Amino acid sequence: MSAVRMDGKMVSAKVRGSILDEVNRLKKRGVRPGLAVIIVGEDPASQIYVRNKERACEECGFYSEKYALPEETTQEQLIGLIEELNHNPHIDGILCQMPVPAHISEQAVIDAIDPTKDVDAFHPVNVGKIMIGDFDFLPCTPAGVMELLDEYGVDPKGKKCVVIGRSNIVGKPMAMLLLHRHGTVTICHSRTENLKEVCAQADILVAAVGRADFVTADMVKEGAAVIDVGMNRRENGKVTGDVCYDEVNEKAGYLTPVPGGVGPMTITMLMKNTLKAAKLHAGIED
Ligand code: NAP
After folding, report:
1. Four-residue CA torsion sign, 22, 56, 238, 232
2. pLDDT confidence of 261, banded at 50, 70, 90?
């Protein structure tokens, strides 16, 4: 029997619909969420992500500004723009599309963003708040995964959860969110011994590796929920995840497709964070 397909497109559309409803209610109080998106250079994948974020802003009724800066922009110029946006009352969220060119420090850019406008939740203040469990914003990809699990009734409480990958933007915060929801969490990485055996014990397996066909059926427990965060490009240009979809589909209980799984959820969570930031700035309680 095949796994239940966790449809990120469908869940995203639902969440964006509820965001739009709330934006329409806020409009009557003179509040309109605003997002500034900055892109430096010409990276083709980043261009696509930024376009998708602009579209999502339109769909949710947000105000948005896009700043497309040339590759040779200096760190000082970029931080100068961020500081202006920090003080711009029409802007509730600031997102600088990563990666930035090598001559700019990613961390310096992240540190420059006002934590109340840090809708990616990468600023050390927000990272610390997530660790404590008292947060305003959640990092978009892990938050999107949690929303998908909730939508399909997969509760991490007491379950063995394995996250493959320990990056600051996906693996580590993913593990933390599963832990907050009472999962028993293991984080794997490139130095993990017996990776296959560890993964095969997971009730919830999250793959955030960045390698096509990494997770094979022998790494998956019968009936497990398998979340594929990976976004890899094959030689033919097609986007694919980290999971061997067809073989894992026969064994898993739940599985996210790529594309159409975690990807759309990530952008939707960015919209959710921007809405939250607008309410924070307007002094409106949830
Ligand atoms: P990353 O920073 O490159 O991290 C990859 C992680 O995988 C690292 O922790 C690495 O371990 C681990 N890894 C690599 N090879 C491994 C191996 N052979 N065995 C076990 N672990 C291994 O990547 P990322 O930024 O977290 O992104 C991961 C994937 O998710 C990428 O495909 C990215 O495009 C995708 N992504 C998707 C979304 C979305 O919205 N769907 C959002 C963000 C990222 P070490 O730490 O030991 O090196």
Report:
1. negative
2. very high
* Ligand 1 atom index nearest CA of 171: 26
Identify whether 97 is a catalytic site residue.
Answer: yes
- Residue 185 phi/psi, 5-degree rounding, is -110, 135
| Same-domain check for residues 256 and 186 | yes
The reply to whether 119 falls in a domain is: no
CB atoms < 10 A from the CB of 87, how many?
8
Q: What domain range is 85 assigned to?
A: 30-114
Catalytic residue among 92, 114, 118, 120: 120
Q: How far apart are the first and last CA of the chain?
A: 42
Task: Give the pLDDT confidence score for residue 71 in this predicted structure.
Answer: 97
Torsion angle in degrees (nearest 10) through CA of 94, 99, 104, 106: 60
Can you tell me the mean pLDDT for 64-81?
A: 98
Q: Which of 209, 242, 271, 273 to mutate to test the pocket of ligand 1 (most atoms within 8 A of CB)?
A: 209
Which helix (H) or strand (E) segment is 5 a member of? strand 4-5
Q: What is the DSSP string of 35-100?
A: EEEEEES--HHHHHHHHHHHHHHHHHT-EEEEEEE-TT--HHHHHHHHHHHHT-TT-SEEEEPSPP
Cis peptide leading into 264, omega within 30 of 0? no
274 belongs to a structural domain: no
User: At residue 272, does pLDDT exceed 90?
Assistant: yes
Closest CA to 147 of 265, 22, 17, 4: 265
What local confidence, expressed as pLDDT, does residue 285 receive?
A: 83
Decide if 24 is inside a domain.
Answer: no
43 is catalytic: no
Query: Is residue 152 located within the same domain as residue 253?
Result: yes
Give the atom of ligand 1 at the shortest distance from the alpha carbon of 164: 21
